[in-house]
Amino acid sequence: MRVLVPFAADAPKTRLEPVLSADERAAFARAMLRDVLAAIDAAGGEPTVLSTAPLDLDPSVPAPVVVDNRPLTPAVNARLPATREDDPVAVVMADLALATPAALERLFTAGGDVAIAPGRGAGTNALVVDHPGFRVDYHGSSYLDHREIAGEIGADLAVVDSFRLSTDIDEPADLVEVLVHGTDRAPAALRERGFELEADGGRVGVARVGNATSS
Amino acid sequence: MRVLVPFAADAPKTRLEPVLSADERAAFARAMLRDVLAAIDAAGGEPTVLSTAPLDLDPSVPAPVVVDNRPLTPAVNARLPATREDDPVAVVMADLALATPAALERLFTAGGDVAIAPGRGAGTNALVVDHPGFRVDYHGSSYLDHREIAGEIGADLAVVDSFRLSTDIDEPADLVEVLVHGTDRAPAALRERGFELEADGGRVGVARVGNATSS
Q: Does the predicted model carry a pTM greater than 0.80?
């Protein structure tokens, strides 16, 4: 299955500003991207990075890069199936650092004209489109909007219930999930920079310790 | 399968204090409990409410109530399998307001000596124990602790990847998930009290609108 992985190359992960410098955010975003691409590849998908700007990725990364500087919604819609004969297209966000091949296989094989893995806050973290009438709208409560769009065009909708795919890494509190459930480079990138789990009463958070500094 | 549903009857959901009064929190906690019990029942489980204090539940609720005023960990451990011949026991938290029969069936049929559905922040939101040597420890990063305990006793561990079971409703921000993905009484309880989704730029939150007031 063809899998688009949108990536904001310019100023990635701005909401992590309280805990990571600009350079660190860029490196961490690339680490997450690489973990996502590796999981897609292992799940039998054929990933393409859909980047807002040219991007130098390690040659070992199993994905071509296509640059489209339009906003996310039109850039994705330009690449969705246009006819009944077109193959399905998946869209998987680049910050799903917990994605595993097993979770992605559940998405790729969910069936339906449209399959969605919702994210927290009514987001659409990953989807598969196999209907020429479906177009995305990532603004606001996109999961609800996508349900509505599917209903309007009479498309069958499958919803994939996955903690891993529901967890996009946006804010400092999300880093806990990377340390606990991350798969490869993203948790390593955090540990290299001094992040570790910190139990404070009932809940677990992250702390940045030692003398790791911003690069 | 026997399913324990621990419930803090005394002062439930204190972290919702910024948006709900004490009476409202108690009513909302009971609404979530009823949705969880109904989902367990529909998934073929036999729920028992393990309450910290006597609890009057609607007679239509399909579950007996057992009172145990000890902390969560010893109260649960007293009811886990003690011998190889004992049937497995599941433990499902009462604030998993997004739980559906399908998600719980995945947990109940996950296999392994221990099956865990992790929650955000390294919590253990639901588990099944089918090993006489396993005991829970809910303090702190319980998901990691439970993995370690399973390893120490040589128990096979299955991890259930479910957004619905990963989402416990603790904080005001979590109410979005109840409104978007809730199943029955919990979202109704919020709507009756004036809560609705509010799109504010990219993310979706909740707002309390109209003249709904605390009871």
A: yes
